[in-house]
Amino acid sequence: MNNTLQLCVQVLVHVYLTAVISRNQEGPGEMGKAVRIPKDDQEKMKELFKINQFNLMASDLIALNRSLPDVRLEGCKTKVYPDELPNTSVVIVFHNEAWSTLLRTVYSVINRSPHYLLSEIILVDDASERDFLKMALENYVKNLEVPVKIIRMEQRSGLIRARLRGAAASKGQVITFLDAHCECTLGWLEPLLARIKESRKTVVCPIIDLISDDNFEYTAGSDMTYGGFNWKLNFRWYPVPQREMDRRKGDRTLPVRTPTMAGGLFSIDRNYFEEIGAYDAGMDIWGGENLEMSFRIWQCGGSLEIVTCSHVGHVFRKATPYTFPGGTGHVINKNNRRLAEVWMDEFKDFFYIISPGVVKVDYGDVSVRKALRENLKCKPFSWYLENIYPDSQIPRRYYSLGEIRNVETNQCLDNMGRKDNEKVGMFNCHGMGGNQVFSYTAEKEIRTDDFCLDVSRLSGPVIMLKCHHMRGNQLWEYDAETHTILHIITQGCLTVSKLYDGSQGTTVEMCNGGPLQMWMLRNYTLLEVIRKVFYSPLDYKL
Ligand code: UDP
Ligand code: MN
C-alpha cells in the first residue's frame, strides 16, 4: 500500500471512529442513557405510553442500533470461548409490539452476535392487529444482514404456542428465545452457547438487565439474584444463597444454578428442547410456562443456570398492554393449575390453600403432560425442594397448613400487610386463604410464603419478618394437647392481646393455660398422617 492510500485509510478510520464516538455521546438514549422528553411533549408522551405500557415516544427517539455500556464483570471481558460453538436460531414472539422496540431487539442481535453463530432470526407474529407489523415489517427485514423469517399465527394463541411454532420452524442447533423488547449487549451470545456445548442438558439464561419503561435507561441486572417463586406461584427474584456462592468458590463469573427462570430470555439445545417436552401447548396467552419449564428441567434430569457473563436488557412493564381472551385471572390460574397438577405433587396444596378460588378453574386435560413426566422418569417435587431449592418459600416438611384460629375469640391470625416488619393481626376467619394462611414447618417456624412469625421479647408484639432459618426468635413449639404455641427462646406463649395502639394483635406472654393462648392449627393432624405415608423414617428426627 502506498503512503497516500495508507494516510487516506487512517483518516477514514479516524472520521468513522469520531462519528461513532460522538454519536455514542450525543444521540438520545446512546450508551443506554435515559431519554428526557421536553415539557411540551409530556401530554402526548402519556397518551403514547398507553399503547404498549412503556414510553413509546422515548423508544421512538432512540436509534435502532443505539450503543450500550459494557456492564459485564471484569472477569467476563477476558474469557476465551471455543471457536467451535453450536449455532443458534433466535426466536422472538410478539403481539402488537412497537416498531422501535421490536427492531431494536433484532438489530442488537445482528450487531452484537458473531454471524457464523446466528442460523436465523425467527419472528413469530401472534396475530397482531397493527398494520406496520404486516408488509412494512416484511419488506424491512429483507434487507438485513442475517436471514429473518416471519411466521404468522392464524389466531391469537399466546406466547407459549407462538414459541412452539417458532421452535418447530427453527434450524439452529440451539434455540434462543427473546422477548420483542430486548437489547443484547456485547458478548451476550458466546457464553450462553459455550455453556450448552459444555453441557447439553443445561438451559441457560442471561442476566436480564433493566430497560426502564419510563425513559429507556439501561441498568445492569444483578448477578447476585436468582429465580424463585412464592405460594401463589408468582416468579420472584431472591438473593443467591451462600451455598451457591460456596459451590462456585466465590467466582461470580461462573454460572449460577437457579431454581426457576423468568421465562422470556433463554437458550436451549434444540434437540433437548424436544426431548424434555418443549412447552405445555395447553397453556394459553401468558404465565406459568416459565415455572413449568423450570420444574420440568430440574425434575427430569437437566439443569437451569444464569450465565452471569451474558447480559441482555428487557423492558420491564408495570402492566400488560394487551388483552387476555377469557380474562387475565382465568388464563393465569388455568396455566398455573396445569403446572401444579403435573409437577408439584402434594405441594400444590400451598397454591390451592392460599388461593382457594383457583380450584374452581377448569384446567383441561393434562394426561399428555403426566405421561411425559412418567416417560422421562422425572423426580418428585419434594426432591426438587430438597436439592435444588432448599431455601424455597414452600417448606419440604411441615406440620400444618392453613388458618391458625384462637379458641377464645374464634378469630384467625392475619398477616395483614404482607410487608416486612408488620404486626400480626387477629381478624374474623374468612376461609379465603390469602393473609390467613400459615404453615407450621418441620423447622418449627410459623411462616407465610414470604415471612416468619418473629418476636424478640416477652410481652413484645409478634411481627412478620423474613425467615432466616437461624432459629432464635423464629422458633415455636406447638402442643396439640394443650393447644399452646410456645415461643422457645422467651418460653412465653402466643397470646391474643390488645396492642398499645388499641388494635387486636398477638404477643408472647407467660403461659397460663388460658383460652387466649389456645390455638387450632388447620390441617394439623391430617398432614401428620400424610407425612407418615410419604416420608422416610429419617424425616422424623424433628
Ligand atoms: N406475547 C405474545 N402473545 C401473547 C402475549 C405475549 O406473543 O398473547 C409476546 C410478547 O409480545 C412478548 C413476549 O410474548 O414478546 C412476552 O410477553 P410480555 O413481554 O408481555 O411478558 P413480560 O415480559 O411482561 O413477562
Ligand atoms: Mn417482556
Textual characterization of the structure:
The protein has 2 domains: 3-316, Spore Coat Polysaccharide Biosynthesis Protein SpsA, Chain A, CATH 3.90.550; 398-523, Trefoil (Trefoil (Acidic Fibroblast Growth Factor, subunit A)), CATH 2.80.10.50. Strand 20 and strand 21 form a beta hairpin. Helix 11 runs parallel beside helix 12. By secondary structure, it is of the alpha+beta class. Residues 17-22 and 529-542 have low confidence and may be disordered. The protein has a 5-stranded mixed β-sheet, sandwiched between helices. The N and C termini lie far apart (82 Å). The longest helix is centred in the N-terminal third of the chain and has 24 residues, at 3-26. It is built from 16 helices and 26 strands. It binds uridine-5'-diphosphate and manganese (II) ion. Manganese (II) ion (MN) binds next to loops. It is found in: Golgi apparatus membrane. GO terms for molecular function: carbohydrate binding; metal ion binding; polypeptide N-acetylgalactosaminyltransferase activity. It holds the Pfam family Ricin_B_lectin. Pathway: Protein modification; protein glycosylation. Keywords: Disulfide bond, Glycoprotein, Glycosyltransferase, Golgi apparatus, Lectin, Manganese, Membrane, Metal-binding, Signal, Signal-anchor, Transferase, Transmembrane, Transmembrane helix.
CATH topology of the largest domain: Spore Coat Polysaccharide Biosynthesis Protein SpsA, Chain A
Question: How much helix is in the residues?
Answer: 25-40%
Termini separation (Å)?
82 Å
Largest sheet: 5 strands, mixed
- State the domain count: 2
CATH superfamily heading of the largest domain = Spore Coat Polysaccharide Biosynthesis Protein SpsA, Chain A
Structural class: alpha+beta
Low-confidence stretches: 17-22, 529-542
Q: Give the name of the CATH architecture of the largest domain.
A: Alpha-Beta Complex
- Which sequence of strands runs across the widest sheet? 3-2-1-4-11
CATH class of the largest domain: Alpha Beta
Number of strands: 26
Instruction: List ligands, each type once.
Output: uridine-5'-diphosphate, manganese (II) ion
Shape assignment: elongated
Q: What percentage of amino acids are in beta strands?
A: 15-25%
Oligomer: single chain
Gyration radius, rounded: 27 Å
Put simply, the count of helices is: 16
Mean pLDDT: 92
